[in-house]
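Researcher: Here's my situation. A collaborator sent me these components and asked whether they could plausibly form a single complex. I don't have experimental data yet, so a predicted model of the whole assembly would be a useful starting point for our discussion.
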Amino acid sequence: MSILLSRYAEDLFWIARYIERAEAVARILDVNETFSRDSRGGQNWQSVLAIYSDEPRFFREHASSSAENVIHFYTLDRRNPTSILSALRMARENARAMRPLISTEMWTQINIFYNRLQALGPQEITEPRLARFCQFIKEGCQTHTGITEGTFYRDEGWCFYQIGRQIERADQTTRLLDAKYHLLLPSVDQVGTPVDASRWNALLRSASGYHAFRRVHPSGLTASDVAGFLLFHRAFPRSVLACVAEISERVTELRSFYAIPGATGVTGALDDLRRLVDDADIEQVIRDGLHEYLDRVQRQLNTLSRDIGREMFGHPGTG
Amino acid sequence: MSASDDTTADAGLLRDYDHGDHFCEMFGRGAIECAHTRVLRDRLDAMSLTSLRERAHDAELELYNFGITFTVYTQKDAIDRILPFDVIPRVLAADEWAHIEAGVRQRVHAINLFLHDVYHERHIINDGVVPGDIIFSNDNYRPEMDGLDVPHGTYVHIDGSDLVRDQDGRFLVLEDNGRCPSGVSYLVENRHLMLRTFPDLMDGLPVRSVSDYGARLRAALEETAPAGVSEPTTVLLSPGTYNSAYFEHIFLAREMGVALVEGRDLLVDNDRVYMKTIRGLEPVHVIYRRINDDFLDPRAFNPQSLLGVPGLMQAYRRGNVSLANAIGTGVADDKAVYAYMPRIIRYFLDEEPILPNVETHLCREREGLQYTLDHLEELVVKPVGEAGGYGITVGPHATAEELAQCRQQILDRPHNWIAQPTLDLSVCPTLVDTGIEPRHVDLRTFAVTGRDTWVLPGGLSRVALKRGSLIVNSSQGGGSKDTWVLED
């Protein structure tokens, strides 16, 4: 069996997370552009800041959450660690460190992708061109995913890569839902009643879930249906449930097949996460408070991430 | 597109090429005609400049996209640069190579014997052949190595010799690199690039392969593993992704099939070295380190170093881990010691040097200093401790002001400088903005030594892209060429 350095495992984990993150930000910007045009012409870019809890940092640098400011902040702003450019720079840096391990095609694609991105000027992200920019980002990330699926050697490293991607994906889905849910649904009483369909469409589309949703719910559109689909549908690849199932399988593989001692140490956090999402009922979740629930999921994902770091990447324990 | 597809109307790539009075690697000079390049010349001549330029552009783009780069640091940014690649190869005939190979092997052998002697009995100093102060005043002399035996007496596992060729086509050694010679990755990647982008140029020619460098290196390193270790684990220790040669570290780790580690991935426990893996600590027996002595172990050397591994030197002294190259090899590739190399070869091997040195004047010696000061405008003046082409003054190209500054530096610290005649280095036809023109080249060879020495049949031909320039270092705007060694 090959020797995998702890640092390599961690880098692979983060390559996947950063690529997934860049793709998620592109999805959110893309859909927000449609969103903000759709409703009475009002601009609503501050909601994107809310998704990532970036308001304090953003307003230290900018006076207003104008479209131009927010879009720049999340696309080409080098100084903002949550921008697409920063995420892909980190992905590339990690991939650079992992070049002995990843396939040449994986490296070449990330390298070209990043070099093209950083050569873009501010005119490429102005609102009329934003959709095309987001398409460029999504396609680049998806190309990475496809190349990785088709060329990356499937040893322990693959498990860490997959776990990283699924943790990030689950986290992004909860954020998307958390921020939009309140904007979409002023009062809990309205849960289950038909709402402004175009807004929910946009939410589903930002998760690439509209067509899948329609296969499950051919007609009608309620808030709880949409939230339930995004959180708990086992066949929808971006649902939290599907992500957790995949994480669970990879952790089991590390423990049982590869006999990684540290994998046993993360089962506690994983079990807690599974208890939270397996067999959860959306109506109940909404009654108890969706925001609180999403918050718990996010915290549990962080705990899992921290435990993986401690048990397998060699981070010092927190005691 | 293959060479024969070009219409003959605008072919004749080399028609206007004129190498003047320089020795040309393609056309020779005077009575030397370089018959071995005939096929390549004909193939090039069948191409047009336009098509060559297009294909050269594709090749450079590929280098950039593949990230075959070195990193240049400015105050603001880290910029990835490719080593400019010139698509016209440099070809060495079988007999030329046999001569180089024998010369390099001889030199490596002498260097290893010299290092053993310096760190043991010091016969060569006691016999008055090499002055002791050259060794002991050298910053790269490591008293920690005194009396330490290394497996097979191999100190320099990887050696790079910089060779140049004079106007008569004679090969001379310009410099020895016995610490961390770099460049082999470009050599191998240049070949791969050439095979992808110009297969028609090489088609059917008996060019010797350079692809097994990694396997040879790994085997040699394993031969020098600590005694009693039957299946040694080898790693490559890199300063990390911010090092300008990081691409090469990746390349070597991949070609050898070993882990590329950084200092933080290793630890020393009870004088043994381990790496941190997802399964816990795994023992490490051989380290190909691309970190200078100074930074290798903060406990033994520079205490500020964050790149190294605390306790590594102690594990090394105990014989629990092998380092390639050994610590303290810098005393052998010093430019002052270089001047003594012919005497070192005669002393240890009782042989004449197969590859002669370039005539060298030591400013530390009275006659050398006087000669240098009297002929400054004809000489190349080099500081003894620097690598990478830094600090060099090329007399014939220097301004009066630069010469005056150089003179003052020599007078301030004579022992820090050597001077050599300005050689008329050989040239190679090279694609530049104005067409195909002669440009000066050198040749870095790579020798790998475990029990025995193997010389990679090829080399990194570095080319000075500026017209008339003699400085080929990549940090000074040099490029490189694929170098073909032909079979008999």
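Model: Some features of this prediction you could bring to your collaborator: DSSP finds 16 helices and no strands in chain A. Chain A has two domains: 16-153, 154-319.
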